[in-house]
Structure formats: C-alpha cells, structure tokens
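Re: the request from the purification team.
They wanted to know what the chain is likely to look like in 3D before they choose a buffer screen. I agreed to run a prediction and write the result into the notebook, where they can find it.
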Amino acid sequence: MNKLISNLVITPDSYPEENKSYPVLFLLHGAGGNHKDWLNSSARIKDYSDNYNIIIVCPDGSKTSWYFDSPVDSTMKYETYMTKELINFIDSNYKTKKDRSGRAITGLSMGGHGAFYLTFRHPEIWGAAGSMSGGVDFRSFPKEWDLAKRLGDYARFPENWDKNVVINLLDSTKDRSLRLIFDCGVDDFFCTVNRNLHQKMLEYKIPHDYIERPGKHTWNYWVNSLKYQMVFFNDFFKDGQISAKASDNQNPAGMNIFGQNIVFKEGKYVLKDEATIRRLKVFDVDKAPATMFTIYKYSPDEIKSEDYNRCTTTSYVYKTYPSRELKLEVDMPNGKGPFPYMIWIHGGGWRGGNLYGHKNLSTYLASNGIAGIRISYSLFTSGVTFKDSWTDIKDAIKFIREHAAEWNLSVNDFGFAGHSAGGHLSSYAAMRTEGCKLLVSFNGIYDITNVEEGFVPNKSFDPYFGSTREEKEFASPAYFVPKKPPYCILTYCSGDYLVDKDQVKTFEKALKAKGAKVEVLMKDYYAHAGFIGGTDIYESTAIKILETAKKILK
C-alpha cells in the first residue's frame, strides 16, 4: 500500500531473559480506532502479556479497512498486509512460535469481523480466533462505516458484499481443528448477526464457543469480554492440540456426505460413533459405501445466502417466569400479506437447544412468503415436566393468535415443524391444536410408550415424561391423532442412532388410520440431522417443505 503502518507490540516481563519461543495474540481494533485503542482502554493488557507469558500485537487496521483487500480501492489491501507483511515482520523480529499452534487472533466490532475473516481464509496462519461484538454480517448496514467505499454500493455490487461477510465464509471452511470463540452483548446492534453465525456453525457442525451476556456496543463490554477470551486462548496455547503440520489441513476430523462425524485414526477415516452404531445395529458399517469415510463440505447450490434475507425478524417475550423469560422470534416476509405461517419448535433432547435452532429453514420460508415463528419453551431440568413444556407451547400459540392481526398473519393458515425433540413437540402440538393444516417433523419421537432399548428417550427421562404407561401415552403424539389430521411430512434416516426406526412407522400408521395424507421421506445412512443441514439433501428438503407449505397453507 506504499505507506508506513504503526503497530503496538507488547512483550511479557520474562521476554528479555528467557531463550524461548512465545505464542502471539493479535488483537484488532474496531471501526474508527487505531493500534493504541486496546492499550488506552484496558489497563490489563500488559498484565495479560505478563500473566499468560505471551506476545500481544495490536495492528493498525486503518479507521475502516475491515481487514480485507478492497475490490474497489487498491489503497486498501489489509488482508495482504496482515497475512504476509505483518506476520513475517513479527516472526523475523521477535522470539515467536512460528506456526499456527502459537498464533491466535481476536478483535472487537470491525476487528471481530477481521479476526474471523482472516482466520477462515488463512487457517494455516492462525489456529485460534475470537470475535467480540463482531460485524460478522454487515449487509444490513450498507451506509455505515465506509463499507460502500471498500466494497462498492451494495445495490450495484452485492457480490462484493456477499463474498466478504464472515457468515458466508463458513460455506468454504473445511478446517474443523480451528479453536473459535465469539460473544456479543444482548443489547448490541450486532447481536442478531452473531446469533445467526452461531446457528450456522451448529448446522455445519463447526466446533466453537458462543456466549451472550448483558451489554451494548461499548468498551465496558469489550474489556470484560477480553478477560474471558484470554483464558480461552491460554488454554489453546497450552493444550498443544493442533499440530504445526495441520497447516496443510492433513487428516482433519469432519463430516461425511451423510452428516455422520468421521475422524482420522491409524491411517484412515472411521466413524466417530462407530461403536454406538454397531452396538445398536443401526447399519452394517463394513458394507457402508466409500463416501461414508470421505470428508464432505456442503456448498450452496440452489439456495443462496440472499434467499434467507428477504424477511424481517422481531423478538418478543411471550411468557415470564420468576427467574427467566420465554421468547419467540417472528420471521416476517417482505410484502403486504396476510401470510400463512409455520411455528418452529427446536430440538435438543428436551434438555437443550434454543429458538435459533431452525432459523435457516424459517427465514428461507419467510423469504418466500411463509412466515415463521420460532418459540422457546421450558427445558427438562429439575422440577420441569413435559406438561410444563406443553403449557408453554400452548401459551405461545395463544400469544401468536392474539398478535396475528398486528403481524399480518393469516391466522387460520398455519402448521408446525421441528427436529428430534422438536419433532416430537411439534407433532404433539399439531395433533392437539385445532385447525392445524401442516406438520413437518424431522426424525421425531412419536410413541414414548414403546422406545427401543438404547434409543431416546430412555428411563432417565421418566422425571420429565412420567414413568407410567398412562403418563407416557399422554406425552405421545401417536395417541392424539384428530379426526381431521393435518397434511404430514415425516423424515427418517437409517443412520440415526438416537431415534429408533419404528417411531416413524408407528406414527404413520396412526395418521393413516384417521385418513391423513402422509409423506415419509426416508434416506439410507444419513445421520439424525441429515435432512436439516450440512448434507447434500438439505437444499432439496428445504425446497420440498416450501413447495408443500405454499400448496397446503392457503
């Protein structure tokens, strides 16, 4: 770029005396800032260097470089500067550990984007990365922070924007050995895009830590956040889990085309959960196709990133307990309406998960005219039972109906959808909610009274569902099929080692006995979540659901 760029380098107190190589943390500033921001705003920066015995480098990323090479401004080549010039300078002039196992990078806001952007594009350089309140998808801010100067006008050059947002880089991120941590304050204007990134990482099965805590887009939040990220990076530097040779991306763990996790052992790829699959006789591993032992990376084909963005999301509290709130989020199509809608209920084994679990599918349908309402509910913890979760779901339905006119919903044109435990709960709600027109259940559980041994739910769930047959029948959708059942799409995968194969057969039989129209989508070898993300059948499944919803919800 033909200019001098300032950088701040902080070395630990031990640096002059010890003849050793030090790990390096690159700490990036946000928009409008410079290389001195962190030192001026956090009195503990030097302490972190001393206490963790690391070198901290604070580069100057210009006020609004966004740490990439601008496709429209040749004077802004900060990706090249960071990955070629700065790395070489630091390694040549300081006693550094000169491989990815000794390098981490994090930053705030624009710097959070930069840290993830640079790491996803250059995993051979950094083995760990963090982001604090990161602008990981800035397309909703086309007139802010000189972005148009760096990428061109959004309306004229959308491809420049799409190629340079962090959330879209996940589509080409193959390295599952990266150690990732990011967080955002719940009152931060970047909170939604960070939640979206978290959800996409879950769907792509990218290991990461994600945290939300009270806070806004302020230095008070970032100074506190860095304290926790330093612990994360210290563990990374100490663990030594990433080999320097991993920069060649040799033998990474990952996912095959069926959504099954595979790992490299003794010179070959094997199924991570092979022992469980063999024990439960899910399928014959020895006769599995070669693709079972080959890394696969989902790449968007028919559904592009913009196909999730033609809608508006709004969050509401629909119920308040003394110690917590239950929320729902409404994904509303652009346009006049009134709109038919799907109520999405997340999975997570009844003990976990959250309302972001089906955000991609919900926003995809919403971007094509079918509104989505994603709801939370009380999870199975001490004292919480299935009846409590069902009461929450009924209260959410009531809240939706009370606000249907305000949200411009076609109140009587609705369905339910969910995966796993969410498949169970959405099926239950569809059977017990008068007027439901459509059910989409991915690998759900339908008869709690008759679960094959080794599959879920097992006896550990008795405090939630109940231990008697009567209690389990009450929690089973198969026992509540109405006289006029909804149109049903049920999925099942023969590679599912969580839900037994008879569940879908039992429910299909009960539905058809009442005259229901049922489509059962079956796939051999695919994993429990094979239909909903990260595999080659995700897009065709999403398109199928959209087409069916348009046909039925009218």
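For the purification team: DSSP finds 18 helices and 18 strands in the chain.
Please add any questions underneath this entry.
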